[in-house]
Each structure stands twice: as structure tokens, then as C-alpha cells.
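Take a record:
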Amino acid sequence: MKKLATVFVMAAAFNVPAFAATKTVTLSVSNMTCAACPITVKKALTKVEGVQSAEVSYEKKEAVVTYDDARTNVEALTKATEGAGYPSELKK
């Protein structure tokens, strides 16, 4: 029975990424044209698996996104905004 429990514990350990981290990035979303645009951008970003939060500013033309880097990446975030009609890029 102990061997079986050890096998389950080891299997679970392999399913958890060793280097997962929460990251925050700022995306430049330059083509927002009204105060309602951030609602659409935020909806698109929060639908991406692994996104924990998204704050979108029309005034700054940017989105600040916090996500689990083991579950998503910047490319997925920019694809999500582009799919919603608002191309974005990592702000430098």
C-alpha cells in the first residue's frame, strides 16, 4: 500500500510545473477609440486560461495583465486582444 501511495505522490509532482510564477506585463493597446473599448479588451484577456487579472486603461492605451506563466504567455495575451479587434504588443 505504501508503494502505491508513493506512486501517486510522484505522479502528482510531475503534473505541477517546477518553475511556475505569477507575472505581470503591460500591453500597449493603441487603437482603443472610446471609453467602452477597455471593456471588450478586458473580457478578451480574462478569458485566457491562466489570467488572474486585467486592468485596461483607455487614457493610457494599455492593459496591465497578471497571469500564471505556466498556463499562458504574452503571445496568447496579444492574440486574445487581436481576436477582439484590438491588436496589442508588449510595452517596452
Q: What stands out?
A: Residues 4-13 have pLDDT under 50 and may be disordered. The longest strand covers residues 22-28. Helices lie at 2-15, 37-46, 74-83.
